[in-house]
Amino acid sequence: MTTRTHPSLAELRQLGLITPQELGEAMDELDILAQPDEDDVDMPRLAEGAGLADTLAWLLRTDLLPQDDFLRRVRDLPRQHDGAALLERQQLAADALTLVNRQAIDILYDEDLLDQWQRDAAHASLPADRLLASPVAALRDMLRQGTLTAQQFEALRLRTRQRGSELAGLIVDAAARQARPAYARPGTWMMAALLLLVLAFAVRTIVSRQPSAPAAPVAGQGTERPDLQQRAAQAVESARVPGGPDLSITVVQEDAAPPAR
Q1: Distance between alpha carbon 188 and the CA centroid of its chain, in Å?
Q2: How far apart, in whole angstroms, are the C-alpha atoms of residue 85 and residue 12?
């Protein structure tokens, strides 16, 4: 194959979907892959007869065409083209996007991280405006969409630890670290509510056992318990979900007016 005349790369350049620099880098990469001693290079190959969509998908998979640049270029197409020329470029971009995203889902299926039903459901809900450039991104997207539930993901993590491949384990662990779905700390707010309830009962018990003060406090001036307030704040802080809404409390004695804000 003469990489300098690869027809699909040249046509993508004519269509304005890749830049002259990206074209040159892609052809240089094909030259490297064509060397006899480069058979073991861990790099996707581009078939000699690859069509436009397959070639564009190859550029995206290898990052020879940066994803952000590609998406920005596609969004800018209506300012440069119209009619059939615009539709041709938009359809080509959509086809390449689908190929890349489907491949990320298929890797999950090949690694036994998805069953056939889950794979088909993921294929049916592929994003049309962004790339799932890796199996990790595909798994996170399924969690966001609900195609894969939190319970299913937890079962998947357990199964992968027990008998999954090394690659499957890496994918699942990376998805768990990078995403912050609801399954990450399922009992956090329930624990916080229980802690607050226990603290409320403790405050009421302490107040009820205290002897009556010789003089009643001035109306409108509540008496705070700094020690209990500090403990309650620490308990809530330890149960706080990262990135969640702020939660602060003030513990006051029974029948005391709330502190001024």
Answers
A1: 21
A2: 13
Q: How far apart are the first and last CA of the chain?
A: 76
Q: Rounded to whole angstroms, how far apart are CA atoms 52 and 58?
A: 10
Q: Would you say 88 and 74 are in contact if contact means Cβ atoms under 8 Å apart?
A: no
Half-sphere exposure of residue 74, counting CA atoms within 13 Å on the CB side? Answer: 22
Chunk the chain into consecutive blocks of 10 residues (it has 261) and report each block's average pLDDT, rounded to whole numbers. Answer: 72 95 94 72 81 96 92 94 95 95 94 93 88 89 89 92 92 82 42 48 54 49 51 49 44 47 47
Whole-angstrom distance, CA of residue 94 vs CA of residue 97: 5
Whether 139 contacts 80, CB under 8 Å: no
Q: Determine contact, residues 184/150, Cβ cutoff 8 Å.
A: no
Place of tokens 């620490």: 234
**Can you name the residues that pair with 252 across neighbouring β-strands?**
224
